[in-house]
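ingest -> validate -> predict -> emit
validate: passed (alphabet ok, no gaps, 293 aa)
predict: started
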Amino acid sequence: MFGRWMGNRTNRAQRANPLAGVSVPHGAGVLSCRALDPVNEPVRGAEFAVSDAMGRTIVSGGADPFGSFVATVPAGEYRLAVTAEGYTPYRGNASVGESVHSSLGDVMLQVAQPPALPASGDWEIEPMHSSVGFTARHIGLARIHGRFNTFAGALRIADQFERSAMHVVIDASSIDTAVKMRDDHLRSADFLDVDQFPTLEFYSDRFVHKGGSRWAITGALSLHGVTRTITLDTEYLGTGNGMEGEPRAACRATTELHRDDFTVNWQTMLARGIAAVGSSVKIELDIQIVPKA
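emit:
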């Protein structure tokens, strides 16, 4: 009975020690933290970054389903940053001892005030400080990056922002991957067929606020003679003033297109069935708008 009691006591001690049964490298310790919202619910989308005194990132990662983050790091002094969409970032100090579990406990993230929306009225894309880029997979390995150099767009911002409307026109022949032979092929009938379909056009259908600075902009994209509904995952960056004091607003947006949806289905297969060009293309937009003159 005495031996059984001692065994139970040992098991309880192991359960109480978060490092029990965990192999921690010599000279290292464990750092942990949990991100909670103002009503003590886990912030599942939280991102954690641990940096040293020189500002170098030692480790980073996302929260688990319970809002927690655990990492093994060399013993020392650190800065911890916790960020999440729609919340004010948290920054704190952490001291990690060798073979010690250093817990910062629960960090309460406060809801951030979203950036002010631009004033209602007619705005237009300012191309000098905007870009329309894309990324495609090549032979299943590398990524090819490109952009469209010529585009224009107008945005009518309503008093109720969700009722705003946007129209963007892109010159298909302005495609640019920095390789002339490849660009000529992309302009050909195998891909964009710019002689028959000189432009890509997007008409927005609705703006949906997803919380914080996130918006979803849904609309119709016409490409290669085919029109499909797409959604732009958009991060609104706020307003500011240009060099001459003019008001500006900015956003970043991404979406993924599948070539077959737009009948851009030219393909060459390499050995072992690897496609020369991937079936999907990631679109990345960095946009600044100014009031229409």
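The helical segments are 2-16, 180-187.
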